[in-house]
């Protein structure tokens, strides 16, 4: 599934 | 990645390094809340469940490993290191974990973007991070005397949160469909918790006096 964009933050 | 996000990550990294420096070189954890450190270890463990399954960038994976490793080693130092653990203010650090963990878990099960195991735990980690500093702030209130390194540690953590808010504002205006209410509200709440501390920190800095919180 597509990652929600905020999951690219720490 | 924008400059605010990077500055946020770097101040976050610096805060952890300052704390490790204090513990490793001075062999003392006086004034540091083990409860807060254990909560951070739980925060990172539940947030980075995707570390080996979803690759975002080398930077992300590296930083995740650093935060996991540093938070667990701080907990290990405070609980098990034969010299460091003696300086721990056990009698003052009495905040109960589950007062924070249980409500955050329940809230994450109700409010989330998707009801899956990983997504609920990820949301839980955001809520828990927002309040994880509370045992530390309570400990500071009680001991009142704050050494420079502990003060800098909390200041850097607060700066990290502030930079993340600027990062979200920047991303909101530069990326299409970038709306994430859950981390924004949790992050805003977390930053507000530092407000009081910031006030006294700058006050002592301006007057060139030792940082002391009011009773």
UniProtKB/TrEMBL annotation, chain B:
Family: Belongs to the ERD2 family.
Keyword Metal-binding: no
Superkingdom: Eukaryota
Annotated compartments: Endoplasmic reticulum membrane
Record's keyword annotation contains Zinc-finger: no
Protein name: ER lumen protein-retaining receptor
Any one GO BP annotation for this protein: protein transport
Broad class of where this protein is predominantly found: endoplasmic reticulum
GO molecular function: ER retention sequence binding
Record's GO cellular component terms: endoplasmic reticulum membrane
Keywords assigned by UniProt, alphabetized: Endoplasmic reticulum, ER-Golgi transport, Membrane, Protein transport, Receptor, Transmembrane, Transmembrane helix, Transport
Ranges annotated as spanning the membrane: 55-77, 98-115, 121-140, 152-170, 182-202
Topology versus the membrane: Multi-pass membrane protein
